[in-house]
Specification:
The protein has 164 residues and is an alpha+beta fold. It has a single domain, classed as Alpha-Beta Plaits (2-Layer Sandwich). The chain contains three helices and seven strands. The strands form two sheets. A five-stranded antiparallel beta sheet has the order 6-3-5-4-7, with helices on both faces. A two-stranded antiparallel sheet has the order 1-2. A hairpin with a 3-residue loop joins strand 1 and strand 2. Helix 1 runs antiparallel to helix 2.
């Protein structure tokens, strides 16, 4: 039997980063110098975002924009009952995707900004509102007419999009 350990985790770079066990986290990270990812690179990045779904994390939704990524996720516990830490999850996605994108584009060096933005959802915040914010991001940026038309948006099949 695995006993879940809900640690409070906190670390600081330029921004503070908080984690409380498996609580939902809204995560955003940007390309270095706002480098624009071409469509094949966005597809690779989306694949890396989905890679650890149902293993290290439960992914609610993801969108890969030309120069940034939004995710809503819950860290999952490992075999010892400790939750995978956000730093490990972020490093895994950013590291693997940078390697793949650099290989695809024949480039070298960092792809992502060193710092990421994360927000621990509070009890009074609705995850559905965050999902809708992420879902509408391509529409707000003028690169899709409807969220469903943007190919680098992923919504967990277990989550129904809001009806309009």
């Amino acid at each position: 039997m695995v006993v879940l350990k809900p640690p409070y985790a906190h670390y600081r770079r330029n921004l503070p980063h908080w984690q409380h066990g498996g609580a939902a986290i809204y995560l955003t990270f940007c390309t270095l110098d706002r480098f624009e990812l071409p469509p094949p690179a966005r597809q690779l990045v989306l694949g890396h975002c989905l890679h650890d779904h149902n293993q290290k994390l439960y992914l609610h939704c993801a969108v890969v924009m030309p120069d940034h990524v939004h995710l809503l996720l819950n860290p999952w516990p490992n075999a010892t009952g400790e939750f995978h830490c956000l730093a490990e999850i972020t490093k895994s996605i950013k590291g693997a995707s940078a390697h793949s994108v650099n290989r695809l584009l024949g480039r070298k060096g960092p792809l992502w900004q060193h710092e990421s933005f994360d927000h621990l959802l509070r009890a009074n915040e609705r995850g559905g509102d965050v999902v809708e914010y992420i879902r509408q991001n391509p529409v707000r940026k003028g690169i899709a007419t409807r969220p469903e038309d943007y190919p680098w948006f992923w919504l967990n099949p277990g989550i129904a999009p809001p009806r309009r």
